[in-house]
């Protein structure tokens, strides 16, 4: 079953804790990236990676960190430095970034309690 | 700054009518403009895209037009059906030296009334 998978679907975190969101793809895509979705604000870019072992900050990278050690995986860590982490997080991959079709995961809803 | 503006934020039409969503972008170097549909509780999915070397592209009931001079592009849905109800996002590929991004609009909630 090919595609891009995010886990978990729902995640609860206590204030002050770091949490890592998983994103895995078996589409053999070079590019992977993370967006944050908030009501009325569309999708905002957190980080993107165009190739293994390389990644770049997006528009709202503060309080987040990523790694790209494998082509298939691009985990996102939400750190305690992120002031408003409660949101819906979408991971995506594509053959090329930013000008080819993005395939999105089903998303992770993070709630800080 | 770099941004993509999308209008309207909500759109309600009667089944069978047409729907039009408009977007403008700021970077004249942009050359790729996709549209994504996100149904309630689901992931966004590409429905149509256009590159800067063409002015219009059509796929059955969906069409996209691009005006590079004015830096705006539009999504047209004809003969709307209830299953067209969803949030639609436009996007533009922006190129800025070492940083390349796909920037999304804020979305349009389309409601097709049966």
Question: How would you describe what is shown here?
Answer:
- The complex is a heterodimer of chains A (113) and B (114).
- With 113 residues, chain A is mostly beta strands.
- Helix content of chain A is 0%, strand content 51%.
- Chain A is built from no helices and eleven strands.
- Chain A has strands at 4-7, 10-13, 19-25, 31-38, 42-51, 54-57, 64-66, 76-78, 87-94, 103-104, 108-112.
- In chain A, strands 2, 4, 5, 6, 9, 10 and 11 form a seven-stranded mixed sheet that branches. Chain A has a four-stranded antiparallel sheet with strand order 1-3-8-7, with no helix packed on it.
- Chain A starts with a strand and ends with a strand.
- In chain B, strand 9 and strand 10 form a beta hairpin.
- Helix content of chain B is 0%, strand content 61%.
- Chain B has 114 residues and is an all-beta fold.
- The radius of gyration of chain B is 14 Å and the shape is globular.
- Chain B has strands spanning 4-7, 10-14, 19-25, 32-38, 45-51, 56-59, 62-67, 72-77, 86-96, 99-104, 108-113.
- In chain B, the strands form two sheets. In chain B, strands 2, 4, 5, 9, 10 and 11 form a six-stranded mixed sheet that branches. Chain B has a five-stranded antiparallel sheet with strand order 1-3-8-7-6, with no helix packed on it.
- The N and C termini of chain B lie far apart (40 Å).
- Chains A and B meet through strand 5 of A and strand 4, strand 5, strand 9 and strand 10 of B.
